[in-house]
Amino acid sequence: MVTAEKTEPGQPQLEEQELPHAAPAPSKNGRPVLIDPDLDFIRSLARQSGESYRKCFQCGTCSASCPISPDTKPFPRKEMAWALWGMRDRLLEDPDVWLCHHCNDCSVRCPRSGRPGDVLAAVRRESVIHYAAPRFLARWVSKPRFAVPLLGLPAVLLGLALLLRDPIGDALGLSAPAGEPIVYSYSPMLPHWLLNGFFGLFTLLALLAAVVGLARFIRVIKAPMAWGATSPPDRSFISSAWTAIKQIFIHEKFTSCTAEHSRPLSHLCVFFGFIALSVVTFWVITGPINPLLKDGFVYPFSFWSPWKLLANIAGAAVFSGCVLMIRQRFRNRDNAGGSTYFDWVFVWTLFAVVVSGFATELLHYLRMAPHRHVVYFIHLVFVFALLIYLPYSKFAHLLYRTTAMIYAEYYGRNGTGSAVGVSHGAKVSEESPAQASTSGGALP
Questions:
Q1: Which of 98, 175, 205, 206 has its CA 20 to 30 A from that of 433?
Q2: Burial of 438 (0-12, 13-18, 19+ CB in 10 A)
Q3: At 151, phi and psi to the nearest 5?
Q4: What is the CB-side half-sphere exposure of residue 165 using CA atoms within 13 A?
Q5: CA-to-CA distance for 252 and 244, rounded, in angstroms?
Q6: Is the pLDDT of residue 263 over 90?
Q7: Distance CA 430, CA 229 (A)
Q8: Which DSSP letter does residue 120 get?
Q9: pTM, entire model
Q10: Which of 39-53, 82-96, 295-309 is the most confident on average?
């Protein structure tokens, strides 16, 4: 007998429930394991996805409905079972959590309104926190009360950079000489060498943190047990990576969604817009030493410069994608899926980056000082929050999902399910008790 512990006001109440002695999944040595439910984990999932997920009775409709779930050990049926049992460690080691694209077909078709898509989204948030280095930053990013300190940190650091600009510039011989070939810079207070050094340093730290988190993640999902494999695959890792990257670029998984048809468009706008903005940024940073730039490097670009046009088109694409995402979440929650603070903070940060960027450009062309300097400073703060906090925010799904998709190709775990639910439904119903136990099926 497991009895719910005392909870604080506002926390989901866990009713007293009888737990069977049988385990829903074997350990790595194939023997049954004793389940020790993580009540804090259950409460966390309930807060993020709602109490409705506890209505799941393992009918298998979610797996049968998912168009990208594999026929062998399909998701999210087994993940729902593990979530109900509070099997935190098992879920955090499950790569299928990241193969789910939250298309929400499963939630729309669930006969009990269990919303498996939202549950897996909550598990992904827990995974980001679990693998992050340091973990406290991921916890801060996922909690509203830390929003002001997290935005205040880059503001303070940029302020210190401004105070130290002249001494550092003089010491390194980087002070702007008279007659510098810049007609009207965005902000003479924040020269390129200062911004490149500032963002270069913190981007390097963020990349190191991302590498540590990914290393922890890969160490877990490389285990054959995670994929149900008993021997190394025959396919090369490079070939697997190439296939996964092609799927990402054409958004193959997103386009198979039937519940929310507008999601692929919004994600494609943000995805390709962000890539184009990154290319322009890289071009600007390497401008002074870039051999492909002829006749000297003059920045900012003129309005009709190909790079300026590309940046504006890309910014418009990201803006449109963000607006579509926000609209989907407000107007069509049942089909688009639930949104937590973890989701919103990423979308609004990206939106703020684009809006402040366009505002900076407009004020620059209108020659409005000091307004343009202030808005440019705000723009840089949001850019810092987007990029430097990448390993700790929902932006990290770019890293973890890509990695999981590569290893899914590597181990041959491709989605071959039927959107109409015939293939998975037949397989689920034909499982023996032992198979159902292994795949997270109906529990005894």
A1: 98
A2: middle
A3: -80, -30
A4: 17
A5: 10
A6: no
A7: 21
A8: H
A9: 0.81
A10: 82-96
The distance in angstroms from the start CA to the end CA of the chain is 15
pLDDT by residue (tens digit) across 134-155?
Answer: 999 999 999 999 999 999 999 9
The dihedrals phi and psi of 72, each to the nearest 5 degrees, come to: -90, 125
Q: Which residue has the tokens 């009895």?
A: 3
User: Which band of pLDDT confidence, cut at 50, 70 and 90, is reported for residue 229?
Assistant: low
pLDDT tens for each residue of 283-328: 878 776 766 666 555 566 777 888 889 999 999 999 999 999 898 8
Q: Quick one: pLDDT at residue 413?
A: 80
Residue 118 backbone phi and psi in degrees, to 5: -70, -35
| Residue 38 · residue 49 · CB < 8 Å | no
Tokens at 48, concatenated:
């993020």
pLDDT at 259: 66
DSSP E strand stretches across 272-427: none
DSSP letter at 24?
S
Q: Is 7 helix (H, G, I), strand (E, B) or coil?
A: coil
Structural domains of the chain, with CATH: 39-134+416-432 (1.10.1060), 145-404 (1.20.950)
Say if residues 300 and 372 touch (Cβ distance below 8 Å): no
Q: Minimal CA–CA distance to 26: which of 442, 345, 319, 440?
A: 440
Residue 350, token pair as written in the block: 């990206």
User: What secondary structure letter does DSSP report for 262?
Assistant: T
Return d(Cα 385, Cα 182) in angstroms, integer: 28
